[in-house]
């Protein structure tokens, strides 16, 4: 049901929730794997191809997030605008969202975006006036690539994109997904 995102497809993977380098300070996932619904995977491949036209690659931080992991983030983040209520399902647990950034194709260096991934801060929002203009351009480039590929942004997080029809799919638990991150 879910399709893996792989380095062999040209993506860079930095699956933060499989490491302690995330906003909880501890690994949430046991396995570093990124999964998406087939429709979302197709659209991510489209975004990859768009990015390549600019000499860029996509780095993925997170994709499918089992509902159990959503609860871990819910408890770790005080500003609930930055994490969906697990009782409502969210979009990551549906396999219909991806957290990502753009990198230089040759070096793999991330383009500056004004804040880091998962920064629970006002400056993480698209168009925030406190973000340097050059970083805003990078965010706008990412936004254009993702929207052209059929994704919708979340206004408070420059890194988060989801299928516009995400809520048409059911949320999934770790037990429902064989070879998932948990």
Automatic annotation (TrEMBL):
Reactions this protein catalyses: D-alanyl-D-alanine + H2O = 2 D-alanine
Look at the named UniProt entry and state the broad enzyme category this protein falls under.
hydrolase
Q: Name one GO molecular function term.
A: D-Ala-D-Ala dipeptidase activity
Q: How is the cofactor bound?
A: Binds 1 zinc ion per subunit.
Name the source's superkingdom.
Answer: Bacteria
Cofactor section = Zn(2+)
Residues marked Transition state stabilizer (site): 65
For this protein, the Enzyme Commission number is 3.4.13.22
Q: Which residues form the active site?
A: 157
Q: Check the record and name the InterPro entries matching this protein.
A: A_A_dipeptidase, Zn_M74/Hedgehog-like
Stored Pfam families: Peptidase_M15 (PF01427)
The UniProt record gives the binding positions of Zn(2+) as 92, 99, 160
Q: Which UniProt keywords apply?
A: Cell wall biogenesis/degradation, Dipeptidase, Hydrolase, Metal-binding, Metalloprotease, Protease, Zinc
Q: Which NCBIfam families match?
A: PRK10178.1
Q: Quote the function comment for this protein.
A: Catalyzes hydrolysis of the D-alanyl-D-alanine dipeptide.
For this chain, the family text in UniProt reads:
Belongs to the peptidase M15D family.
Q: What is this protein called?
A: D-alanyl-D-alanine dipeptidase
Source organism: Teichococcus vastitatis
Report which gene this protein is encoded by: ddpX
């Amino acid at each position: 049901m879910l399709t893996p995102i792989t380095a062999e497809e040209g993506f860079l993977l930095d699956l933060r929730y499989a490491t302690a380098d995330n906003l909880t300070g501890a690994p949430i996932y046991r396995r570093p794997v990124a999964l998406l619904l087939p429709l979302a995977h197709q659209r991510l491949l489209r975004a990859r191809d768009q990015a390549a036209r600019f000499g860029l690659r996509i780095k993925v931080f997170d994709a499918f997030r089992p509902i159990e992991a959503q609860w871990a983030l819910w408890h770790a983040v005080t500003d609930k605008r930055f994490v969906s209520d697990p009782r409502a399902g969210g979009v990551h647990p549906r396999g219909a969202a991806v957290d990502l950034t753009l990198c230089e194709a040759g070096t793999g260096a991330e383009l500056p975006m004004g804040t880091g991934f998962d920064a629970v801060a006002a400056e993480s929002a698209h168009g925030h006036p406190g973000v340097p203009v050059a970083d805003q351009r990078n965010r706008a480039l990412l936004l254009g690539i993702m929207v052209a590929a059929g994704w919708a942004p979340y206004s408070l997080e420059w890194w988060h994109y989801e299928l516009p029809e995400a809520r048409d799919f059911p949320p999934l638990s770790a037990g429902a997904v064989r070879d998932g991150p948990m």
